[in-house]
Each structure stands twice: as C-alpha cells, then as structure tokens.
Amino acid sequence: MxxxxxxxxxxxxxAFIVFGVALVLGAWQMFVRSPLNAWHFxxxxxxRSVTAHGSAMGYVFPTLIAMGFGYAITEASLEKALIGRRxxxxxxxxxxxxxxxxxxPVSLGLASVLYTFYxxxxxxxxxxxxxxxxxxxxxxxxxxxxxxxxxWKRENPGKPVPLAMYANVAGSLLWGWTAVGAALEILFxxxxxxxxxxxxxxAGLARxxxxxxxxxxxxxxxxxxYIAYYTIFPRAIGGRLFSDAMARISFILFVVVAMPIxxxxxxxxxxxxxxxxxxxxxxxxxxxxxxxxxxFTICASAEIASRLRGGRxxxxxxGALPWSNPIMLATALSLVMLGFGGAGGLxxxxxxxxxxxxxxxxxxxxxxxxxxxxxxxxxxxxxxxxWPHLTGRALDSFGLMRTQLWLWFIGMIVTTFPWxxxxxxxxxxxxxxxxxxxxxxxxxxxxxxxSAIGGFILLLSGLLFLLVLIRxxxxxxxxxxxxxxxxxxxxxxxxxxxxxxxxxxxxxxxxLTVVNYGFPIAQLMALKETSVPAVYVGAGR
Amino acid sequence: MATETDHSLGEAVAARIERxxxxxSIVIVGLLVGMAAYxxxxxxxxxxxxxxxxxxxxxxxxxxxxxxxxxxxxEADGSVTVRAIGQQYSFTPQCVVVPAETPITFxxxxxxxxxxxxxxxxxxxxxxxxxxxxxxxxxxxxPGDHVMPCQEFCGIGHQGMWGKVKVIDKAAFRDLxxxxxxxxxxx
Lengths: 541, 187
Fold this sequence. Notes:
Helices cover 69% and strands 1% of the residues of chain A. Chain A is mainly α. The model of chain B has no long low-confidence stretch (mean pLDDT 90).
C-alpha cells in the first residue's frame, strides 16, 4: 500500500511538466536548425534553448522520476510507510526551487553555456547554484533510501531485501557518488569564478571532473527503467521473473563499473594520457555486461508469461504475448531501442571508432535513442502502471496509451537514425544553423529535415502522454489494491550476504574510481600554468 | 513429491541456461575489448601519449604558436607539421594546406575557450582545450577539399566556426614548401 501518495504524485507531476516544457524546446531546436526553417533567427536563442532543454531533461526530469519511483518502491516493497516524510518533501522543494533558480538566468540569456557547463566559459552564478540545489535535493533522497533500507534490514534479520528496493538503493548509491564529480567542478572551480572571487580556471581539469559525473549519470537515469523491466514487466504480463539473483548481479555491476569509465568522453582531449584512456575504454566494455544479462532475463521472463498463457513453439510464443497491454508494448519497444542504442554505445567505447563520430550528430543521436527512447518510454510505462495507485482512479485509455507509445517509438527512430547517419558524414553537433547551400554540407540536408519531422512526432506523443495522465486524474474511482512487484520463478530460500548488502560493492565503486581517476586528477592538479582566464557569457558582459 | 523434484530440476535447468548466457556475454565483451586493444597496438591509432601544456595568455608572444610559425611546415625527414590555433570563432590559419600520402602531425591549441575540429570525409577529429597542446598524427589518402568545423560548443558564434583543409599533390606541396617556410591556403 502506498501511504504518501501525494508525495509520490508531486514528484511524477513535476517531472512530467518539466519534461513537457523541455520537449517543446527540443522540437523547436530540431526545426530551426533544419533546412525546413527558411528564416533567420538569433543563434543565441538556440543555445539558450539547448541549455534549458539539456538541464531540464538531464538534471531535473530523471532525478524527479528516480526520487518519486524510489519512494513508491520503498513503501510498496517494504510494506511500510516511508521513514523521513518531511525530509522527502524538503528534497522535493529543493529540486523544484533549484530548477526555477537555474532556469531564470538561462531564459534571460545569462547562462547559455549548455548543461555540460564548458568552462572557461562562465555564466550567471544562479544557474550553477540552481543546479547544486537540485543535486542537494536528490542527495536527501539518497540518504532516505539508505536509511529506509538499513532500518528494514535491522527489523527483518535474515530476510532478503525485496529486489525492487535493493535495485533502488543501488541506483541511489550510484547517484550519490556520481554527482560528486560535477559538484567538485561547480563548487571549487566554476562558482568561485562566476561569483568573481577568482578569474582563472583549469578547463582540462574541469572536463575530467565533469566526465566523472557525465557517464555514470546515464546509469542513474537507466536504473528506474531496469527496475521496471525486472519487477513490473513480468507481473504486468502475468508471468514470473526468470531469476532474482541475476537481477541483483546486474544492479551490482552497474554500481561497480558504471563509475570508472567516464574518460571515454575525453578520448579526443589532450589533458589525459593514452594509458588511462585505455583503462576507461576497457571498463566501458564491461558495463555492457549487465545489459546483456538483463536482456536475457527479461526475454526469458516474457517467454515464461507466454507459455503460461498457452504460447507454443520456438518462436510462436512471441505472438501469444499480451501485446494489447501497454506495459508489454512499452517494454518490447524499449528493448528494441536499447539494442540499437547499445550497439552504438559499443562503437563509441573504442577509441579508434570513436574518432570517426566524436562530437558529431552521431553522439546526439546515440544518447537520445538510449535515454529519450529506451529509458523514457519505460518512465511512461512506470507512470501508467503506478497512476491508479496514486490517484485511486482507473486509468483505462488503453488505445490512447498504445498510440502514444507507438508514436514515441516511431518518432524516436525517425529522429535518431538520420542523426546517426549525418554524424557519420561528419556533421558537428550543437550548432544553431548550417549552410545547407554549401556543396560540402548539402548532402546532409534531407536527413536533417527528416529528423526534424521525427521531433514533431515525439512532441505529439508527449502531449498524448500528458493527456492520458490528466484523464487519469478524472477517471472512475476504484481502489487499485496493493502495489505489487514481480515474483521470481524460483524464490531462493536464502540469499548470499553479498547479494543482500552493499558494503563490498561500495568499497569497489570508490576504490575503482580512485584508481581510474586518482592519477589523471592528481597529475592535472600538479601541472602549473594550466589555469586560463574565464570567458564570461551573457548579455551586458 | 513429484512436484518438489520438478521444481528443483527446473531450478537447475534455469541456473544452467543462465550460466551459459553469462559466459557468452563475457566472451562477447572480451572479444570487443580485445579487438580495440589489438587495433590500438598494431595500427598505431592510439591517443596522444603525454600531456603537453601551452599558456593561452602568451601564445601570441613566444613559443611555437606565435603567428609567424602557424601553418604547414615541411620537416627534414619529409613529414609535415601543421600548427594551428582555435579562438572564438575561427581557426588560424583558416585554410590548412597539406600534401597527400604524407605523414602529418597536427599540433594545435586554443587561445580562449574549449574548441575542437573534425575534418569531414576523414577520421580526423580532436579537441582543443586552452592550456593544453593537442598532437595528432594523420595521413590523407588523396588530394581534395574538406570542410573543418569546430565541433565543440564555444559560444554564440559557434555555428560560424568552419575552417577548410586543402589536400594537394605531394610534389606540388614540395614546390610550395621550397618557396615559403610556413604554408597556408588563406588568400
């Protein structure tokens, strides 16, 4: 039973409102930079919009989803009310106020530095202060998840922690440590300069700190999706989870190897040597492992559900799956996008192949397919699944839900496939416009126009999604009952301590980070004369 | 009793399939990492080995990035070194001329914020971070013209930062280099 429904609903609603606004900006960006737009415009508006779109979609939206879903998991899986309700509301308000504080200077054009900050460019201090508030709000959530986990374990000695809660705590611990990199960059490097206390900044060191956050943040975004795969999907389609232990191992692998790999974002940078680039490349390969394990377990769980429904044959069982169920559809579409996006990720992980696509539209296509596609479509599924439990009303516009999910999938493919293609042709990312009349660029025009159309399909799907949720607020009253998670096929009688706790894995996470980041950071801090004058951006400077 | 045996049998089967898949997954990842390592070692497409620095405040006053030293230089061993800088919102030189079929080293840095460049139609793609020197070995197969955009957001004029690369015949380049110490194709 969910006790703090208002708390959870507030997180989801704010997340989806932020998502809706950022989606409109995204579609506008796709349009203005495409050959479909014949008018001149101020390029500064474009970078302002990209900063807002990236900050909202990267920092605010998934953080609120992880927090709201985390509170729901705590109450539903531990079967007791959340401990620390007031703190949870404080965290929520910090995130909400932080988002507004950050967005005011951005919308005034005082901080068009993009969500990746890019020092030595430095914008208005309130942008960074707002982002810090969002992160501090989320750290309250991290603390609450660990507290609830620890107290439950003390109250239930010897009992395995429910999988959903175990995975949820894994995600919160990963985020707690991941956010430290960007926090160090903002607090010790950027903010002193933005406030005028210092005038110089080491751009190379800042990029290393940011890479610490930049890659593992993706796994923080991903964890709610994987929790939905493992604990919602098998239950929603009337089946069983193939393996409880394998699920725990996958989440543990994320905690351990998601962190020490961020330097693959710096393959082309001069401030990190070849040795550590190679180390990070190898670890990036390892992070494919939990995803391969997950794909197997989820497909096997689907097969169990299908056979229970009477599915036959080596492949015939696929047809017998409950395709009209939105959770079934969302998970299948998510896995297809995860497949394409994951294959792209394996390409990016190798230094040699990355050289062909680094900082091109390929990269933009890649992370939109993985995050916007595979991950966000499961956020929709989570909301659809959870909504009746939050509102106490039926959510039954199934046809609308299926249309919305299909449109999101089609829109994402139409947007990102041409994006990947023009990236291979060498089209640079993050430009307000391109000279399509230039014979060297004109072959890319058609693909860019196509991906802009994909952007509009995504916008339509996003609006449909909000419509479904709003209709859900006015549906027929009906108690949805207890919120349950999937049951494994074979519930292990007892579970190894390692799969029920985090001590060892946290030590490995921190240890590997120190090994893989310690030397590059120490080397850069020891180098003299690498701090360069800050370049202030924004009107009136 | 029968169901109990079925249950533990099913559990053993499930565990076996799972172990096989995990092994296969590890083999796949091992193979991919091995391929990347092999190519890195045997085809010399490795990142720059060591970190070099250059102070952007004095770039124009002394050192290898003073204006008169920028452009393409023929070395005694027949290879070519290209020195360039990026600044908001252009490259110097804005047009780089290089010979085909020749080992070339790009040495470049930034005078202000983070920039980057890629040369369309090739795999040349790197970052320019102020304070640090980027050194990149490249080789162009055939003569031709390429565009060279800045690929990292560098401010509101980023979309206008496009350089050019003109790859010319090896012999023609040698003739030009005999007449002039530093070559560019900026007219």
